[in-house]
Amino acid sequence: MWKKSVLALAGGVLATFAANVYAVNWIMIQGTEPPNSKPRFFGAAALTYSNFVGCDRLSGMAKPDGTPDGDLNAGPGLNNGYYVNNCRVGPELENKDSGFNLNALVLGSRGPITDKTNYFITTQFGSNAATYLPMNTDRERIGTLTDASVTFNHIPRARLKVGLFKKPGPEELMQSLKNHNFIYLTDFTRRDQIERFVTGNAKGTKPIPDQGTPVTEAYDADVGRDWGVQFFDAFRIADWQHTYAVMAGNGNGIHQTDNNSEKDLNLYWSSEKDLPGGKGPYKHGIKFYGYHQKGVRNFIKADGTDSEDFDRIRYGVGMKALGKLGGYKQRFAVDLMYADGMVLQSAVTSCTDCPYGGQIQIAAEEGNKARGTTIDYGFYLNKKWQFDARWSRNNLLYETAANTKWSPSDERIITEFAVGTNYHISPKTRLTLNYVFRDSEAPNAVEHSNANIAEVKTQNAENATSTVGDVLGLRIMHFF
Q1: What tens digit of pLDDT does each residue of 118-136 get?
Q2: What are the boundaries of the signal sequence (predicted)?
Q3: CATH number of 451's domain
Q4: Which has the closest alpha carbon to 250: 170, 341, 163, 190?
Q5: Between the CA of residue 338 and those of 19, 450, 455, what are the distances in Å?
Q6: How many whole angstroms separate alpha carbon 472 and alpha carbon 385?
Q7: Do residues 222 and 254 touch, judged by C-beta distance below 8 A?
Q8: Average pLDDT, stretch 301-321?
Q9: Staple partner for 364: which of 310, 333, 353, 382, CB 3.0–4.6 Å?
Q10: What is the extent of the structural domain holding 379?
Q11: How far is CA 303 from CA 207, 214, 283, 296, in A?
Q12: How many domains are contained in the chain?
């Protein structure tokens, strides 16, 4: 029913917007150059203040035998007294619920090399998953490449892009920083789409057979990108522009080479009703799109002698429109996103986003699923002011694989409603204010042969999810 309701809402809005709207083709914008262009430099800086309003420190967490779990002064891996990770300022994840972060400092260059080749390069010096070890407090590098690609435009209808670049996928990750209307990504995108790479896994306090030695941090992240090759192009049929992309990638972090013999295969298609007016990120049109990503991930077994492979599948569909209605520019978008296998659940103790001083839990087997839904709306009063609202939900592990230790009690329903405004101080500088109402729920009781253990673990889950509060964010961003 929820799928039908979302699709019906999207269809109704599209019918209203059809007179004068516009969207953007990120595959072409980030992979090609317009005629007679020249090499040019660009950059962006973003400073963010976050305050996790209403978040509480963990309390009442207990070990399976019912004894207290300890507190933050008693040693690593004990949870009472800590904020859960999604109530702490990242990427350092120190045990504080407010603070500043220079989350973006980007320098880049793009342009032609010859009349049939072009390049795209960006570097990141901010504090984020590209420069920090994910799930850790340590900064790994001062700066790093986040894009380094060359496109060859020699074959009609089959442009070839090689290097490090964004994987064809959901609009939220494909779009440029300038087009992010909200400070924070949705929970599904943060948790299930952006990938952290680990060598092992855990469930409870012991590793699942064949899933390696338990680990407490990831060694890299993909930040929505991969090293690989991609064939792509756009073509017109009547007044519709269709775009395809087929990418083969390493399926590893942006600082790594391939970690197994398998390659990721990423597929993308969009169809956009092309209307007169606009260009670049503001091109007129109504866009529908879909994508499918599949790869293999590997865990080394605990004895180090062998390894086990697991499929990682992500797919989704969406639409986006931006245009005038009643004399005012307005934006509407819908995304349906799915994850199957390699779903990041939490750390141990039946706790969503508990401190990663414990062991990392990934629902690795195919059949462990998550589902993300996003509805986005924007109202543009004038050139200075815009107002935004976004509802999103992550149904985390709404379905689990048979014959594994994952169970219905691992399901989480994470709902967010973000409201905010963007004030454009100038065409290149803007101030963003967001307030995100958040709710985290563990809907199913833990099942266990020992009733006392079941009760303790159920209470742990309820304790942890109840500590999640809202978040207030203020960001100033400048482009140059």
Answers
A1: 999 999 999 999 999 887 7
A2: 1-23
A3: 2.40.160.10
A4: 163
A5: 32, 34, 31
A6: 19
A7: yes
A8: 84
A9: 310
A10: 2-479
A11: 12, 12, 55, 21
A12: 1
